[in-house]
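User: Show me sequence and structure for the first protein, then do the same for the second.

Assistant: Starting with the first protein.
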Amino acid sequence: MKWLKRIFISIGILGLLCLSAFIVYNIAYVLGDAEGYEAGKTIGYISGKQDGYKEGEEAGYYSGKADGYTQGESVGYISGRRDGYSEGEAIGYEDGYSEGKTDGYDEGVEASLGHGYTLRDPTYEEVITFLRQDKTDKNKYVEDTYGVYVCSHFARDVCNNAEKAGLRCAFVELRYTDGGHAIIAFNTIDKGLVYFEAITDEIVKPVIGKRYYQCIEPKPGYYYEEPSFDDTIMDILVIW
């Protein structure tokens, strides 16, 4: 009977151990489930938020980029086309107007006047500068029965060269008692009508009744002697 008693005691102890283990398991499960839920909720929320934010950001970025590009392309095209048209029209108008004006002016001048120069009255300083640059005074004076290259030729060439430079220059005929002489003149805007000897570029102040050689202002170191003929100025004829 003792061994039977021992068996029941062992079974009772084992039952208590099992019951205790079950109770401990349930308590641990409840505690673990609560903590796991809280931990999982926090971690899952953060992880889900991060993943969701990233996916939403990417989707929004590409969607916004596509919409923005489409709208920007459309608006930019319209705006650029409008601005380009305005600028192109303005530039084209200016270029066309300038070229058309020049061509029209040239054709009009040739058709009506047959002359391409626009002449103006210069300043005194412009005249001096022109005469210094002009090489007519370097030509050789050649006199013959009819005059190969004399004063009238000098005056003619200076007038033509002045005309090419856009300066209005007069051919001036000085009439003597017997014969005459040709010089040039400019109607300057600051010193009025000024005369020059076309052969030497020297300043001349012609006066009717006075000897011509006395009317020339010689260059430094030069002087004019009285000529053998009568060069008294009887008339001054200015031809423009």
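Switching to the second protein now.
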Amino acid sequence: MRHVGMVLLLGFLPIELKAEAVSILSPAHLSPTAGAIVRHASADAETRNSASLFAALRAMVDPLSPQISGAGRFGAGSGVSGRDVVVIRNIIEQAESRRDGYDAVQHGARIKPPKRPTAMTLGEIYRWIDRTPGQPHAIGRYQFIPKTLRRVARIVGAQPSDRFSPALQDRLADVLLADAGLHEFRGGEMSRRTFMGNLAKIWAGLPMPSGRSYYAGIAGNKASMSWARFDAQMAQITPG
């Protein structure tokens, strides 16, 4: 299903789902291989540092859609490391959660979590989500929306009793990086520009070459950094 078609579906969604879609993000997925986090998007028209609308949309059709080129290769419980990953994670934080980082909560959430996100377990976050319907729930450094959070947690084998620590958040986000084509990019099979575009289709705060968010004009989404800045930082880690 094409992205435009999914956007049209928003008008027919329940209020609660519409809220999530508007919100991210990223944290969220309409992923590169199959659906949204979307693979990360975020709940009101003011959304700026929310996990991508991609995440909400992706959560609707579910992970991994042909919307992004590059299929992620990610084994359960595994993670990735390296300077390139650190740089990419920092770029996403600049776009999605620069103020609160790992403890970020989508600003449109009227009822905030009872504790700092990093002090909560996944189970506590799930209960907060279930008990506060009708508001955005993008959470953490990567602004994960509910369906995306549950999906990536399953992939890495995280349990409800696990703390939503910085380390766990990074592992969960790595699933999305793989979806965007991290391994193909590292192997020289994907260009920097294509990989950057895939990332921008996951996190609405990242820009496309035009300088605008892939979701500009939808639910208040906008890029929170320039293409020149995004490109300059990514150029530091381009293979070869």
